[in-house]
Amino acid sequence: MSDEQQRRFDQRIASETAIEPQDWMPDAYRKTLIRQIGQHAHSEVVGMLPEGNWLTRAPSLRRKAILLAKVQDEAGHGLYLYSAAETLGCAREDLYQKLLDNQMKYSSIFNYPTLTWADVPVIGWLVDGAAIVNQVALCRTSYGPYARAMVKICKEESFHQRQGYEACTVLANGSDAQRQMLQDAINRFWWPALMMFGPGDDNSPNSARSLAWKIKLHTNDELRQRFVDNTVPQVELLGMTVPDADLYFDEATGHYRFGEINWDEFNQVIAGQGICNEERLAAKRQAWEAGAWVREAALAWSAKQAAPDAA
Ligand code: ACO
């Protein structure tokens, strides 16, 4: 690394000119991006599982078609993100193997089960809603390919969030049993959704450097607060309640104050001890093995294309 390369990199970060794959970048910047984009890609593909669980049981053809489209979108998001990670010089197979070997993380939220139909609308609304708050900020992240992937992903997440909320309004205006099912799903997903934003700022080892490099543009707590401020009025509009006895609107600051997150639970989930961690990885390993013939066929086909006269 020359001083001139470092100076040019620092200048691009300061002036918010995107860093592109061919540009020089510090090793630690590259590694941080591979870690974050890789985890993000894994989250998208593992995130297909909880909702995929309801594809055969969606209550109508319309709901089924919407859910199918949403789950397919998540697969597409994974593909853009693995491609963005590959521009940093890593192999997709390598990243994916690390997921299967439990050497890379994916979002904590996908280690919770989907017990009733109401979980599907609530995931669309709360989980994709939380993802949007985080990802809208990432549209201006300093690494060009990641920022550009985020723009398209955010458009699709926005559709996911709206369809989730629309399906929640149907349950909220339905029978007592439907309203109870909705409240129960909100009770189970509210706190895990807040945990998606990561540890509190005092406890986030990667934040300072990622903020300095403008990989992250806001802290975990700032984005979590934004999500709570956006979402509490939506819960109220549904006639539902937030499962937080300490929640109140602070007139002085214009923000909702909320109770303490159960960080022990968060730490357990990201250490692999959540309710569904084993099940999720087992499903991904099984799919990888069952898909071996597709990879072999694709390789055979491309070899044939490369040498069309040989066969
Ligand atoms: N689930 C699992 N792991 C998490 C979570 C979470 N919700 N939040 C933080 N972590 C991990 C971090 O990856 C980091 O682990 P590592 O250092 O071993 O790699 C550790 O906890 C400490 O956290 P931070 O220092 O705060 O980490 P970071 O600066 O990377 O911030 C954040 C975490 C906010 C999740 C960031 O990585 C990010 O914005 N990622 C992109 C968005 C994303 O991945 N979304 C996935 C869910 S949305 C969806 O897929 C639909």
Automatic annotation (TrEMBL):
GO (cellular component) term, any one: cytosol
InterPro entries: Aromatic_CoA_ox/epox, Ferritin-like, Ferritin-like_SF, PaaA, PaaA_PaaC
Family matches, as Pfam families: PaaA_PaaC
Biological process terms in GO annotation: phenylacetate catabolic process
GO MF annotation: an example: phenylacetyl-CoA 1,2-epoxidase activity
Descriptive protein name: Phenylacetic acid degradation protein
Annotated organism of origin: Shimwellia blattae (strain ATCC 29907 / DSM 4481 / JCM 1650 / NBRC 105725 / CDC 9005-74)
